[in-house]
């Protein structure tokens, strides 16, 4: 194949935004969940990312209702209909817990946990993808000029299923997780079907060039016999249609996160944390409790630090926030048990009589404002995934720190998409636990000037490349490529 040359970022510059065109977002979950005060926006990277689309564009959001009843039919403060999909218990088990979270999630994350392959899960995945595609098409009947934007590894068959029915529809797909090397991808028994599913889109987009190249190489390895060809960043299908691949690193609503720093509730939260951890360096971790996030390696590195330097047992505190996640999947339940054992052991070993524990652990979801207070109060954020598509937590941290006038340091795994954009961080290799412990030490010891300089550069990168720029770039690109493909067919 010829080498891919054009990045999505470069392509974005040449197209104009389509600000009011309807959008049909298709994602595994609807963006609302039932909280203490009624229906509220669900936490998590995808909802955070898609919120601005839904605020600005009319259209619909197709997603699983999570088994809830009585969800509003429209997203509050928007012109977006919510189109719930109800799944049976067997579909939740086989499509969601099985194929999505025990086959595709580990496979796409470099198989760091062994992916499980079950024919019955694959059958359920195809069946549920058909349900999502049918629902998206019904929404397209209501909004004939809509852009359909499909998200993530749960729904990789959907673009082709829609394309079969609507040859001229503009369809985009965004993958929020990595695409592994072709060798790892090739382990999937249904590797060809999934690729064809994705290639139903006009644009298939990834966080980094590396993931995009891996995808193009997988296409060549698995599908070249069909007559498919990779030309630059495009994939030319046997029927002559071209699928564009794009690199489009996702981001956060930087303006909103920066504004949290000035809210009274957040300021009170910061003051309380500063009081609680007065005189100590506060290290923070904040993740979904997921085996990709390197939480165990982080705890072991902190343990090594405390072992090496007894003074740190009282001068440093490590606070881990863990959002409960997928606790109905075996590997996730096991992970929780292991993390809690490590926390207990480290505190048992290193708590000094009469002093606070060195490791604090909160297993719960927090509001963005509560999180912002932790971000503002933390001297060092530890983001140490073994692999992570992007990682929004580090972008949120640098934004809040900068807005709060802080000088926080970021320790960032080089195996995150974010490391490409934030090279001023203290980059680390979390597989090397001892090395990681030295990186944490290095971050603690950084002079305030060096910290501020790095922080300013990282916050500026996130401010300029925020989620609004990402959304408008993606939608414009999908519209342009969709129109070009439809034009070629005529
Ligand atoms: P996630 O794996 O969920 O997302 P991430 O990008 O870090 O990972 O997003 C996590 C979100 O959860 C952040 O917005 C953060 O604010 C929030 N969060 C963290 N701790 C929390 C807590 N205790 N309570 C409530 N919320 C909390 C997937 C991919 C990522 C990719 C995103 C977006 O795995 O690589 O960056 O999608 O594409």
Tell me about this structure.
The protein has 490 residues and is an alpha/beta fold. Helix content is 48%, strand content 17%. The chain contains 19 helices and 17 strands. The chain has helices at 8-12, 45-56, 89-108, 119-142, 158-165, 182-185, 191-198, 209-223, 254-260, 264-276, 295-308, 312-315, 330-350, 368-377, 393-403, 418-421, 433-445, 448-464, 467-489; strands at residues 23-29, 32-35, 38-41, 59-64, 80-85, 147-151, 171-174, 203-206, 229-231, 234-236, 242-247, 281-288, 316-323, 359-363, 380-383, 409-413, 426-428. A nine-stranded mixed β-sheet has the order 5-4-1-6-7-8-11-10-9, with helices on both faces. Strands 14-13-12-15-16-17 form a six-stranded parallel β-sheet, sandwiched between helices. A two-stranded antiparallel ribbon has the order 2-3. α11 packs parallel to α13 (330-350). The longest helix is centred in the first third of the chain and has 24 residues, at 119-142. The radius of gyration is 23 Å and the shape is globular.
The whole-number mean of residue pLDDT values reads: 93
Strand content: 15-25%
Specify the structural class: alpha/beta
Parts with pLDDT < 50 across at least 5 consecutive residues: 1-17
Strands across the major sheet, in which order? 5-4-1-6-7-8-11-10-9
- Helix tally equals 19
Categorize the overall geometry: globular
Bound molecules: adenosine-5'-diphosphate-glucose
Spatial gap, N to C terminus: 28 Å
Beta-strand segment tally: 17
Q: Major beta sheet, specifics?
A: 9 strands, mixed
Indicate the percent of residues in helices.
40-55%
Measured on Cα atoms, how large is the radius of gyration? 23 Å
């Amino acid at each position: 194949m010829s080498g891919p040359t054009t990045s999505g970022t470069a392509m974005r510059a040449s197209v104009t935004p389509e600000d009011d065109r309807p959008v049909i977002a298709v994602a595994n979950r609807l963006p609302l969940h039932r909280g203490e005060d009624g229906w509220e926006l669900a936490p998590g990277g995808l909802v955070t990312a898609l919120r601005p689309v839904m605020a600005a564009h009319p259209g619909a959001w197709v997603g699983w209702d999570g088994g809830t009843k009585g969800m509003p039919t429209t997203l509050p403060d928007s012109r977006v209909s919510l189109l719930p999909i109800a799944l049976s218990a067997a579909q939740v088990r086989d499509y969601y817990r099985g194929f999505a979270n025990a086959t595709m999630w580990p496979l796409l994350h470099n198989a760091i946990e062994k992916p499980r392959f079950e024919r019955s899960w694959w059958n359920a995945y195809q069946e549920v993808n058909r349900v999502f595609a049918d629902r998206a098409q019904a929404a397209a009947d209501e909004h004939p000029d809509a852009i359909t934007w499909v998200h993530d590894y749960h729904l990789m068959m959907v673009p082709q299923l829609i394309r079969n029915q609507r040859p001229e529809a503009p369809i985009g797909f965004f993958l929020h997780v990595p695409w592994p090397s072709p060798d790892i991808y090739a382990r999937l028994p249904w590797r060809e079907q999934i690729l064809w599913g994705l290639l139903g889109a006009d644009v298939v987009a990834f966080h980094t060039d590396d993931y995009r190249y891996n995808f193009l190489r997988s296409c060549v390895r698995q599908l070249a016999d069909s007559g498919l060809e990779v030309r630059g960043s495009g994939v030319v299908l046997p029927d002559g249609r071209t699928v564009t691949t794009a690199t489009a690193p996702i981001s956060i609503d930087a303006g909103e996160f920066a504004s949290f720093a000035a809210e009274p509730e957040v300021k009170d939260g910061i003051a309380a944390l500063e009081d609680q951890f007065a005189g100590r360096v506060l290290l923070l971790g904040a993740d979904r409790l997921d085996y990709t996030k390197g939480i165990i390696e982080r705890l072991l590195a902190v343990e090594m630090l405390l072992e090496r330097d007894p003074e740190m047992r009282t001068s440093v505190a490590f606070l881990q926030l863990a959002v409960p996640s997928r606790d109905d999947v075996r590997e996730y339940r096991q992970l929780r048990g292991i993390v809690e054992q490590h926390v207990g052991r480290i505190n048992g070993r290193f708590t000094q009589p009469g002093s606070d524990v060195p490791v604090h652990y909160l297993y719960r979801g927090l509001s963005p404002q509560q999180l912002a207070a932790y971000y503002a109060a933390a001297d060092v954020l530890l983001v140490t995934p073994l692999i992570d598509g992007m990682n929004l937590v580090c972008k949120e941290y640098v934004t809040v720190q900068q807005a709060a006038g802080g000088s926080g340091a970021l320790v960032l795994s080089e195996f995150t998409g974010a490391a490409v954009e934030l090279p001023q961080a203290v980059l680390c290799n979390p597989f090397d636990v001892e090395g990681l412990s030295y990186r944490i030490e290095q971050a603690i010891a950084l002079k305030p000037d060096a910290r501020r300089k790095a922080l300013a550069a990282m916050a500026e990168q996130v401010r300029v490349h925020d989620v609004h720029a990402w959304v408008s770039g993606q939608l414009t690109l999908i519209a342009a490529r969709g129109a070009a493909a439809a034009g070629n067919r005529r």
